[in-house]
Amino acid sequence: MYSYKTSLVLSITLRLLILSVILATTFRASASSLENTTNLDASTARNLVKHFYSLLDIDVYREGILDAIVTKDFQIFESKKIMNLESFHDYLTHTDPNADPLIETSWTLTDFRVSLDNHSAHLTYQNQGKFRHGQSMSVAIKWMESAYIVVENSKPRIKFINVNIISKKVEQLSG
Question: pTM for the complete prediction?
């Protein structure tokens, strides 16, 4: 039999059930998005840039090695050129006919300044590189650089690097 009390109890029960479902769904969605979100910190950002340069070492670098740490639309501005990953690979592997092949490369990154939020970081830093071309030449270069890092697929990745040369010293070796 229908009564006002029965109708009221059913109405309240139905409302509580709907509210429980909404809260449970919202909590699961929030927890899930928190699990999939990587918050960047300054140390992670610095280490990612340092790792980028460690992968450029002449004994380590190969095509595709940067794919795991850069975005699909990665760009680098260096030597007055805007390059994507493919053209950067060509730039790195180009052989200068006027110099012996590279046998040693090293980079020292210092003076990091990091600005960040939860999903991106902007870094500026100094970079000092040393490059040895066989027994004939050694090159030391100092750059002022910046990098932009974003979280993509729950991982920090480098989206952009800007490279500005400060000085370059070429030393001819007796060889």
Answer: 0.77
